[in-house]
Amino acid sequence: MAASLGGDADDPIATINVTPFVDIILVVLIIFMVTAPMIMQPSINVNLPEASSGESTLPTSLQISMSRDGTIQLNGAPSDLDSLASYAEKAVAEKPDLQAVIAADKEVPHGQVVSVIDAVKRAGIKKFAISIEQK
User: Fold this and answer.
1) What is the extent of the structural domain holding 91?
2) Does the pTM of the predicted model rise above 0.85?
3) CATH code where residue 70 lies
């Protein structure tokens, strides 16, 4: 309602019309709500195995992902076993109680997962978790 009931027709409208502002804000809110799940998707799509006895872990600074084709990603960046071990050694020197979370696709051979766990443990990380999806 931009017009006022009383007053002269030549007077400027001194009230602010909030309706278009609210409409624009609601449209922006809807856009953010629709795009937020797309942004939050992980950069590597890993098909995790399911287990009913899993526990949630606190966010850590060392996230290791293994894809179906055997590639390793460390905190979202491509890596290999040697660079993983050297990065873990440096990280343990800065933060001795560091925990590693390993998310391996269920199609990854057991031996490759064990080699990553071995590299992490040799670097000095005492705690590690294997990421799963709840059933």
Assistant:
1) 62-130
2) no
3) 3.30.420.270
